[in-house]
Amino acid sequence: MANFRHEWKHEINTSDAAVVRQRLMTVTKPDPHAQMICLPDISGRPGIHRYIYEIRSLYFDNLTDKALREKIDGVNMREKFRIRYYNGDASVIHLEKKRKCNGLTSKESALLTKEDVQKILCGDYGFMAHSPYALVVELYHKMRTEGLAPKTIVDYTREPFVYAPGNVRVTLDYNIRTGIGWTDFLNPDCVTISAGDQIMIMEVKWDAFLPDIIRDAVQLTGRRAGAFSKYAACRIYG
């Protein structure tokens, strides 16, 4: 059973992100899975380092858009399934179920092969019933009984920061894009389009307590926690 964690989400702008990034870089560590990139400074010379990774997700929903509607309506207890891989590398793919209950979140994960995902995309998911992973079997039954099916691609860039006390993870998510056809999920070169206005999302996640040093670092005047959904933003396009 996955542990539930606290989660804040804030819609921010690039100026907010610059402030938060500078604060976090002095007290946190970059995610070990992130890739370092070097950006030019204001004079055009290399010198600004950031640690990022690219995320591609494929979300599931049923014919009545249950997951989408529950998110929009703010249903207290809800769940959603997605398949995800990182940095265009489809050799490692995760099936994830994210749950929300009383404002807390949890996530369960299981591995899928590229061949497994291709079968799911083609509607051939009988193999899932015999998976060694309970989560894959659960999705199979919900595809059969509730009509869950692949719905939309969500791509974005994530800039993560980690802080060990409290198991804190702060992320800046931006460049949110969606693919018109989810059948191209395994193609890293598939065409994606911007999902509306290019806002940034700051997420703050922690276990039992949020250290004051992080609470202060992410504090922004006039910004309050919200309920932004990348999935909902991308569903506008299909």
Automatic annotation (TrEMBL):
This is Polyphosphate polymerase domain-containing protein. It comes from Parablautia muri. GO terms for biological process: polyphosphate biosynthetic process. CDD domains: PolyPPase_VTC_like. Residues 4-234 form the VTC domain. It comes from the Bacteria. The lineage of its organism: Bacteria, Bacillati, Bacillota, Clostridia, Lachnospirales. InterPro entries: VTC_domain, VTC_sf. Coiled coil: none annotated.
